[in-house]
């Protein structure tokens, strides 16, 4: 059920006054991330655009040294390699054997063949077990087509993928984490958000969605909410058709601020944001300030390779 949130036709972007200064795009690694048994690594925070600083959507949840991946956008394996070289040893690419897909749009899945085949170049990859992938209906068909396109020997254990097409509810549980899937609204495709419950943190990832009651219900004071957003500044800069599309499948800064006031996460992380800026204010800073004008909780913008 969509949340009835008043849609502002205009937003007072320039009321902030003065030039906006972009945040330094350096990895964010708070001390708490080192102390926790659970780490969140933002592998990709971008949109379908080709921004070289933001890979396609991909988020790693690491619990007791074991990685769990959500989405596999463009550049996912190389972002794992970059995180590994920066000291996140759990993200050695062949170690990533469990993945969850929010929905089947290209920007969230174009890295799927990369995830299947690139780590297989490691000599020991076949002994690590199959890749277990959880996601919406159609994931098996997608996987079958990828295997037909790339694999010469379908019995090669390095390329083994077990697909689990899911319905809402608990979809995965092991000694580290319980993963609950819930439906979100992203137009005419089946789309899921996920809640991860670990020994010390509760983490909710929205995936792509309009503001949706299920996100509030599954967060409900969670430790971390990772949510997509677009700014009203970039919204007002696009065509009427593009505005209508955004309204139908994504969440504005104003809507997300209202949602966060109800969900009450301890930390709100913004990802999958529009990069449109031109010669005007920096979109990242504008988005953050739009939300902070309404939502007074802790909120940050996520960058590739940030660790929380």
Give the beta-strand count.
14
- The percentage of residues in β strands lies in 15-25%
Could you state the order of secondary-structure elements as H and E? Answer: HEEEHEHHEHEEEEEHEHHHEHEE
* Rg calc: 19 Å
Name the CATH superfamily assignment.
Answer: Ribonuclease Z/Hydroxyacylglutathione hydrolase-like
Q: Percent range for helical residues?
A: 25-40%
CATH class label:
Alpha Beta
Instruction: Compute the average pLDDT.
Output: 87
Give the CA-CA distance, first to last residue: 30 Å
Structural class: alpha/beta
Folded structure, characterized:
- The protein is of the alpha/beta class and 308 residues long.
- It has one domain: Metallo-beta-lactamase, Chain A (4-Layer Sandwich).
- The protein is 26% helix and 24% strand.
- It has helices at 31-35, 76-85, 106-109, 112-117, 139-150, 213-219, 232-235, 240-249, 253-263, 283-292, and strands spanning 38-44, 58-63, 66-70, 98-100, 131-135, 161-165, 169-173, 178-186, 189-197, 202-205, 224-228, 267-271, 299-301, 306-307.
- Helix 6 packs parallel to helix 9.
- The chain is globular, with a radius of gyration of 19 Å.
């Amino acid at each position: 059920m969509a949340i009835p949130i008043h849609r502002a036709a205009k937003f007072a972007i320039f009321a902030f006054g003065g030039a906006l200064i972009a945040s330094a795009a350096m990895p964010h690694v708070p001390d708490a991330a080192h102390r926790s048994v659970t780490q969140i690594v933002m592998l990709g925070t971008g949109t379908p655009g080709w921004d070289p600083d933001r890979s396609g959507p991909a988020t790693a949840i690491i619990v007791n040294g074991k990685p769990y991946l959500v989405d596999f956008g463009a550049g996912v394996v190389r972002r794992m390699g970059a995180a590994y070289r920066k000291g996140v040893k759990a993200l050695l690419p062949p170690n990533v054997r469990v993945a969850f897909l929010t929905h089947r749009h290209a920007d969230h899945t174009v890295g799927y063949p990369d995830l299947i085949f690139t780590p297989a170049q490691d000599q020991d990859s076949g002994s690590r077990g199959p890749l277990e992938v959880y996601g919406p209906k159609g994931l098996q068909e997608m996987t079958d087509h990828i295997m037909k396109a790339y694999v010469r020997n379908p019995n090669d254990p390095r390329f083994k993928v077990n697909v689990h097409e899911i319905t809402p509810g608990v979809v995965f549980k092991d000694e580290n984490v319980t993963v609950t899937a819930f439906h979100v609204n992203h137009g005419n495709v089946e789309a899921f958000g996920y809640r991860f419950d670990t020994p010390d943190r509760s983490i909710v990832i929205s995936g792509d969605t309009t503001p949706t009651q299920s996100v509030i219900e599954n967060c409900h004071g969670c430790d971390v909410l990772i949510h997509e957003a677009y700014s009203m500044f970039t919204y007002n800069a696009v065509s009427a058709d593009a505005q209508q599309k955004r309204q139908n499948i994504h969440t504005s800064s104003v809507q997300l601020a209202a949602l966060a006031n109800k969900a009450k996460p301890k930390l709100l992380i913004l990802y999958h944001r529009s990069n449109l800026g031109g010669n005007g204010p920096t979109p990242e800073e504008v988005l953050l300030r739009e939300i902070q004008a309404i939502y007074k909780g802790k909120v940050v913008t996520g960058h590739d390779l940030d660790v929380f």
